[in-house]
Task: structure prediction
Amino acid sequence: MGVNNQLTLPDELVLTLLNEESGYFRQVPGWNLNCAIVGSALAELSLISRIDTDTNSLILLDKTPTGDPCLDPVLAEIASESTQRNTQYWIERLAPQAESIIDTTLDRLVQRKILQHHDGDFWSLAQSAWTMGIHMGSEVGTAVEFVKTRISKTIFNDEIPDPRDIIIICLVETCDVLRYIFEIDEESEARVNQIIKMDLIGRSIADAVHENIARPSFRRTALSTRIPVVPLRKLLRNEHARSGNIPALFAELGQTYGPVFEIRPPFQENMIVLVGPETNHWVHRHGRNYLGARDYMVEFEKLYGGSGLLPALDGTDHFRYRKSVQPGYSRGRLEAQLDECIDHTRLNLQTWGVGNKMSLLSAGRRLVNAAMSPLSVNLETQDIIDDLCKYKARALQTHVARTLPMFMAKTPSMKRRSKLIGEVTERVLRVHTPAQRVGCPRNLADELLAMHTADRQFLPEANLSFVLSAPLLAAMYMGDQLSFVIYAMLSQPELEREIRAEADALFANGNPDTKALTGPATDVTRRFIMECLRLYPVVPMSIRNVMNACIVEGFDLPLGSRIAVATTATHYMQDVFPEPFKFDIDRYRAPRKEHLGTSYAPYGLGTHTCLGARWVELHMAIDLLLLVHHFNLEISPKNSKLKINPFPSQSPRKKLKLVVTEQRNALVAS
Result:
């Protein structure tokens, strides 16, 4: 089969529209993109003789399925209509299916190793780039180069194009992005206009797409309605607000006030809240075009002496940063150092004696940091981790959540702790000289320092203090999540016994390998952690500012508005997770699999999805399994009801203690 038949027109259009610098599609308005995608599917069906089309009608020639999951639903829809319609009618009717065609096309391109998918719904050319011959010559290049070379030769070399080339040029020009891919002068523009007129099929589809784009009445808009405001008394009297359960609070408010509502907390800026499956999906797929993180993070950046830090970046810079440091956060890197992770964790557990009573919160953070710090920055930092966590927590409260006045970030204790950020940088630099790193496994600090060396404007020295201490500060979030997991396990003895059985079998003959740790042998542990992430997400929402006005679920989000994207409110919605307050680890087994999709969002959604999510899942499983294998534990006071501290992120209240009641197995490093 020739190359031309291997890539369908939807494949080619998606590849052409992909902007590798930003990791997403070139900015084509949603309705415009939908029309072009449907046009590409119709054109492909015409080229394989399933339909024919002219300026007045679209005719079904053969309703036999093609075997292509992008084309067959379109073909079936056309076959179900007894009345003959024109191309424009079908583009309008099928436009709502465009997202499904795009998703299927992207999945197929990833499976064929043409594209690589990154967390946050970013795409780039796969590193093991799929290559092919271009036309009949000896040249080779990536699939994207193949498509763009054909377009380029057709436009600039005056070659006679085939119908496929004409159609793809028609569609790309209709999306109005051709000028961003190639340098189009007046002569080239005249050539493009000439090409569009060469083929009846391409012209009729392009004309239909263009007319839809030009007519606002066909766009999927809604009359914006007034955003409901939640009365303050309703907010303060809510039982979930009093218990600190932010996701449950927003889920209940969403049930009463709808998917978009406004809260007006005293002494704070008004905030519009987005809740529910539909808003989650919108944020994940389209939020990057309308919502920005930069404005609300500016003051936080100043505390760390930096500018352009990853949490505050959007667009191309954000994607570039993520790609550069992603290897340092990858699960594969943790798997490669599995024995070291287990040994570091055991060394920390050796400080736990029978009868010890410790803060559950502090125990979780220190347990995580025991391995996180040496693996990510090659340091032991248990001596300062508590102060670093306190500094970040206060900084988030004063400069992001704004639940405390800003002067609270300048108290004597905060000034003392701020000096530790610089100390971490000095420690990292001392142990990351070229001679000392020879033969050592590459870590996150290596990635960051390499990025700084390669582009000192993109990652300036002023930002090093934050980025090199960030892996340690991750111990706060991951440690707090682990604290919730430990509490949930100890409060459910039956599940604790199942997890302990998995742990004892796993460590019966020494340290397990990656296959054992990630396979069926830890099924209960993994599903247990997933349910804890649903019920007790440490980051229940994200704050954004509207950088481009938009309409969501019929409500106008004005420019500059502050938005709370309550991504985890869906975790407590009955129609998404039946009996949402019930702890049920079977939610994640077939056939239920309630976690699939954007309604399960413990790591966030969209471009700012947690970069280390898969590392976190494995690391927490290791910590939990080691705990139950080596100790019997209990919560103090016994039978304590969980109370959540909601600021600056969700964590168990400090009063909860963890007591070591028995050591079950010796703590010996491998």
Confidence is low (pLDDT under 50) at residues 1-5, 132-140, 216-222. The CA atoms of residues 178 and 270 lie 42 Å apart. The first helix runs from residue 3 to 6.
